[in-house]
């Protein structure tokens, strides 16, 4: 019986992991928070009904790889709100290192070059990436 339960849990975990990888970050963060709440409630229920504590603690350690997703959404929202809503054309040009006479293509080229260095996925800062994105938007709108 326990082998069957283990096999079902393993298959369910594999399907959930596959889904988890392919969804957008906002959905992933929400799902991770809900999953953590469910696991914590289950842990307390299992402890209450007499399951040994080491098994529950071991089960909670399985969640460690997913911890960054619990805080990812707040970080993105913070970086969006931290960026000033008003940026002058001169500030935007300084951020991207372009001149007033540069074309849209040159602005995009400078944007791509800089965003590759400051993007959070490449080890950069979410705040800097948001500033660079905002500078590009300001320049392309004008």
From TrEMBL:
Residues of the J domain: 91-142
Membrane topology: Single-pass membrane protein
GO terms under cellular component: membrane
Domain of life, per lineage: Bacteria
Pfam families (UniProt xref): DnaJ
Keywords in alphabetical order: Membrane, Transmembrane, Transmembrane helix
Subcellular location as annotated: Membrane
InterPro entries named among the record's database cross-references: DnaJ_domain, J_dom_sf, MFS_trans_sf
Membrane spanning residue stretches: 39-71
Family note: Belongs to the TIM14 family.
Protein name: J domain-containing protein
